[in-house]
Amino acid sequence: MKIVFDAFGGDNSPIEAVKGAVLALEARRNFSIVLVGQQEIIFNELRKYQYDKDRITVIDAPEIISNDDSPVLAVRKKKNSSIVVGLKLLNDIPGCEVFVSAGSTGAVLTAATLLLKRAPGVIRPALAPVLPASGNKQVVLIDCGANVEVKPEMLAQFALIGTAYARAISNNQEIKVGLLSNGREVGKGTSFIKDAYDIIAQDDRINFIGNIEARDILSGEVDVVVADGFSGNIALKASEGTALMMLKLIKESILNNGIRAKIGYLFLKPVFKEIKKTLDYNDNGGAVLLGLDKLVIKTHGSSKAKSFKAAILQAASIAEKGLITQVSSILTE
Amino acid sequence: MKIVFDAFGGDNSPIEAVKGAVLALEARRNFSIVLVGQQEIIFNELRKYQYDKDRITVIDAPEIISNDDSPVLAVRKKKNSSIVVGLKLLNDIPGCEVFVSAGSTGAVLTAATLLLKRAPGVIRPALAPVLPASGNKQVVLIDCGANVEVKPEMLAQFALIGTAYARAISNNQEIKVGLLSNGREVGKGTSFIKDAYDIIAQDDRINFIGNIEARDILSGEVDVVVADGFSGNIALKASEGTALMMLKLIKESILNNGIRAKIGYLFLKPVFKEIKKTLDYNDNGGAVLLGLDKLVIKTHGSSKAKSFKAAILQAASIAEKGLITQVSSILTE
Q1: Cβ of A189 and B148 within 8 Å?
Q2: Rg (alpha carbons) of chain B, rounded to whole number
Q3: Fewer CB within 10 A of the terminal residue: chain A, N end or C end?
Q4: B139-to-A241, A304, A317, B135 alpha-carbon distances in Å
Q5: Which residue of B has its CA nearest to A219?
Q6: Chain B nearest C-alpha distance from A261 (Å)
Q7: Residue B282 pLDDT more than 80?
């Protein structure tokens, strides 16, 4: 299996990206990596490491798409960027079915939608991160930003696609699905949420528990939360912002509470480490764009080597499990 | 000044509600309270306390609206409920301009919209909680659920109303406003967010900093976050759910990390207390429904005496500051 990896996406590329790729190769043996980006610089970085040369190919892509570029314009004009070249490789090289990038979310989504084919029957692809939930569980949030304006039928498909994804990553077949709304009662939400509720409730392929409030996304009660891309994005980022604020509050409060608090902190260090690890994006890989005939993983722009490694291993794992086929099967069941 | 207080709203009424009312009277002297609910039971509760009898009036309201009732039906049929009777008192008794309730959000919003007049020029009232933000700041989130479907002009008014509210509670005149969207760049968001952006950006009365992501709501960067009621509700509850999950994670992690972690916890107890206090809804009062000719404060359904007390003091304080007049002024400036 070949994984195409954007060595020039994100704030810490290519140094951390190349390092992450080498670390991923060391961790598992069942894939090779196609590194895409400015060739000379990538080779210079690779020289720092010992690695299996048969498992890394470098493809030149001299142009760079930044977060300041307009996604649509950038994808159209920068044909030699790592994002455009990388995604095209998925179509051109047999055995390539995953692209991993920490580049501009807008550009990755735009390019993927333009350059890759939709999987049979899919109305619109959706972006799905996996979040840590209570009780050591995981929850798939689908969509978190690929579709800002949605139709009810799209949400119903997200429920199916999310079910396939949750099955693939959990080995659990009984996937519970909730629909993100502003209250649990039937009839809560915008008109498209209410219509989506009716469609999802009638679909036997979905184990639908009804509306779920944003308060309960991380409760472990459901395995999949279906959302329109706008609300899903807001739920994801509100959660992220609150977690960061709390860690900051704890830190400030420890600093302001004298020696006693500092001693307490020393004792509790393993606890804080554990919590940071649970919440850490770096360990959780990236969000997967689902619904195309190839897989695209978008990792955090601030990814470091550890996070790139996690995303590449995630790519290997979902490709190995045949996620694309599973998404197609559930849609045509 | 008279504050009308629903003694039968929420999970812990009337015991905690009556206690909260007595505590509020002790804390400040510039208001009296009209307690609404089942008269005999309220009198029985009041008998437990020493209080200034001139400052409490009890009005009988034998019916109870529960969270299971359909808001619209309940408001129409239960004319003798504490919510309906209480809101009508605002129109009937001179000097009454605030109603405080921990009852069903749907019923309180429905009844307020039906029974009270809109303030001049207001398209739709909005529900605005105040959240704790970094750097000991506060942020007004408007709307968080009163208007699930919105028009751009409504969002522009929320920016103005939110500015008036933030001024009243902070004594700061330079109120910064952000619009909740799925990215900072101009042009991000649903069509109604994009249209609202243009209207708000052109309004000289608003100190508009542009779009804000949900990640930055609690950053202290803005004083007001404008949102449609659906997204605002999701941001609020995602934040609440994440804070709860983190506290749970910390607790579980302390329990699982042996004696060392438990000692650390003892040392850090003041820190955790401080954090809980910052995040605690019980100290922060309730969300204010703004845009009507009277003020309505909706407190958490799980409110206890301390929280009821905080909400009554909040009511006294915003009424005293002439918030209704300030909202009207900014809209007609």
Answers
A1: yes
A2: 20
A3: C
A4: 14, 32, 42, 11
A5: B245
A6: 5
A7: no
Between B284 and B209, the more confident residue is B209
**Domain boundaries B127-282, corresponding CATH code:** 3.40.718.10
Instruction: Work out the average pLDDT over A12-41.
Output: 96
> For A186, which residue in chain B has the nearest alpha carbon?
B70
Nearest to A238 among B239, B250, B266 (CB): B239
Residue B298, SS3?
strand
Asked whether the predicted pLDDT for residue B248 surpasses 90, the reply is no
Q: Assess A230–B contact: CB distance below 8 Å, yes or no.
A: yes
A210: left (phi over 0), alpha (psi -120 to 50) or beta: left
Sequence spans of domains, chain B: 1-122+291-333, 127-282
- Interface residue of B105, B218, B271 to substitute, partner A, most A CBs within 10 Å: B271
The verdict on a CB contact (< 8 Å) between A244 and B217 is: no
Can you point out the beta strands (E) in chain B? Answer: 2-6, 32-37, 56-60, 96-101, 126-128, 130-133, 137-142, 176-180, 207-212, 224-226, 287-290, 295-298
Q: Which residues contact A57 (CB under 8 A, 6 or more apart)?
A: A32, A33, A34, A35
Question: Which architecture does CATH list for A127-285?
Answer: 3-Layer(aba) Sandwich (3.40)
Give the Cα separation of B31 and B55 in Å (integer).
7
Q: What are the pLDDT digits (tens) for B48-82? A: 999 999 999 999 999 999 888 889 999 999 999 99
Q: Hey, is the C-beta of B259 within 8 angstroms of any chain A C-beta?
A: no
Same fold for the domain at A1-122+291-333 and the one at A127-285? yes
Q: Which residues in chain A are closer than 8 Å to B191, comparing Cβ atoms?
A: 149
The model carries a pTM of 0.93
Q: What percent of chain B has pLDDT over 70?
A: 98
CATH architecture of the domain covering A1-122+291-333 = 3-Layer(aba) Sandwich (3.40)
> B265: nearest CA in chain A?
A264
Give Cα B158 to chain centroid, integer Å.
Answer: 15
Please name the residues between 64 and 123 in chain B that touch chain A, using a CB distance below 8 Å.
106
User: Which residue of chain B has the CA closest to A134?
Assistant: B245
